[in-house]
Amino acid sequence: MKRLICISNRITLPRRSAAPGGLAVGVLAALRHTGGVWFGWSGETNDNPADEPEVLTRANIRFATIDLRPSEFDRYYNGYCNSTLWPLFHYFPGRFRHEQDEHDAYQSVNELFARQVMKLVEPGDVIWVHDYHLIPLGRLLRQLHFRGPIGFFLHIPFPHAQVLRLLPNYTELVRDMCHYDLVGFQSEDDLRSFFSCVEHAGLATVAPNAQEITIGGRTTRAGVYPIGVDFEVVRAEAEAAMSEDSVQRMITSLVGRKLIIGVDRLDYSKGLTERFAAFEHFLETFPENQGKVTFLQIAPLSRSDVLAYSEIRQSLEQMAGRINGRFAEADWTPIRYLNRNFTHGTLMGFLRAAKVALVTPVRDGMNLVAKEFVAAQDPEDPGVLILSPMAGAARELTGALHVNPYDKRGMALALQTALNMPLEERRQRHQQMLEAVRRRDIHYWYGTFLQDLTGERRVPAVPASPGSATTGAARPVLRSLGMGS
Ligand code: ADQ
Fold first, then answer.
1. Which ranges constitute the DSSP H helices of 328-354?
2. Which letter does DSSP use for residue 329 in this model?
3. pLDDT tens digit string along 346-393?
4. Of these residues, 33, 103, 155, 402, which one is catalytic?
5. pTM more than 0.90
6. Which of the following is catalytic: 125, 364, 441, 452?
7. Interhelix angle for 188-200 vs 170-177, to 10°?
8. Domains in the chain, please, with CATH?
9. 142 CA from centroid of ligand 1 (Å)
10. Which ligand 1 atom is the nearest neighbour of the CA of 368?
11. Are 364 and 388 in contact (CB under 8 A)?
């Protein structure tokens, strides 16, 4: 493989202090290994954006960014990405809207991305596009005559045809995904849903257990590549953070109470209102825990300009206030609710200090916090993970207590079980999860994807991936049958 160009909506510049999210951590890990370019939006809006991308080079990575116009950004990002695609892909048809001008802005931002990326490409480059913001980009790059391999990875769930068909132009969206050489999903369910949409849209007939589809002579392969965490880094960070001042102060402040933790971007897909309600039910049903546990919910704000996000923020503030008002004592607050970011290391220290983690999204592509919690634990005395089956991570983390996030009673019971689980059972459950998280770490994720995309093993040696589109180390070079070729 020559040079890797990763493209995502937003990139994390090294000079910025913002903590990178799950996507950014994965892209950075891949680029650090292979070297290359990371292209995306700078995070700035500007009425007169520069004609050329701004490029910053750090070690073996070139960070190339562009600004967007404010009105275009609003319709593209707050509108089509986060009020149309995000709710629909997370099975929230009630929160979804479709506005033609937002769809048009989505297309024009993708066209801008394509034009700007073409200024950076060199012969032999390999392109890897990330996430729902940029679905049309593969087709647009082909129209501009990019001939190398183009892969696409969807970080969020892919909905079944019965949900996606609510989108007026869903056929166009599915067809756009078929312009990539390789499309990666987080889970088998997402892959099957994608194929259901290909069939429903009448684009192709898909054989059972198919791993590729051919439309108009162009073949697209599709596979499952569950994203992981940098296991060794998380483990080391968590261990080191235990002697950090901020982690020590948090532990001291518990005065021996057991810590229950939740860490999620503030998003309605993360099941936070359901979680708060379940915690309240837990305090009612098992009153012996009052004054004995502390629930720390860390929820940094995201997408604050979208109405659904300001609404959920308000609901959570009210719930936390009401629950604390109802149960708190002069020396005990049941819920500590924080909207701020922490360094990754500090966060890993908090996870290590927790006896229980609540990872209970109502829908999530993967959920890296679940895997980070496992990696951060002390294997000799591990905490218990309570995990929603609606998170992609539930497939791999069978040692967790699985509970439906809408089932308040089940959640309360799971909390009681977790807090009283004998050490031996905690160790056994943790061991299963530790193996899964270690085996399929972040290097395995990008390694298998890029190997399947390029046919070359230039990335860390990985065994053949059982869930991936094609297996085996050597493969013929991909056919590149895009529109421009
Ligand atoms: P997200 O929805 O952002 O990602 P997640 O997978 O949980 O969700 O990743 C969040 C990351 O941000 C974690 O690494 C976490 O440690 C970090 N983080 C969270 N709160 C933080 C805080 N307050 N301070 C610092 N860091 C914080 C999307 C999809 C997921 C998918 C990922 C990766 O929605 O389903 O797992 O992409 O593919």
1. 344-353
2. B
3. 999 999 999 999 999 999 999 999 999 999 999 999 999 999 999 999
4. 155
5. yes
6. 364
7. 120
8. 4-228+442-480 (3.40.50.2000), 231-439 (3.40.50.2000)
9. 31
10. 6
11. yes
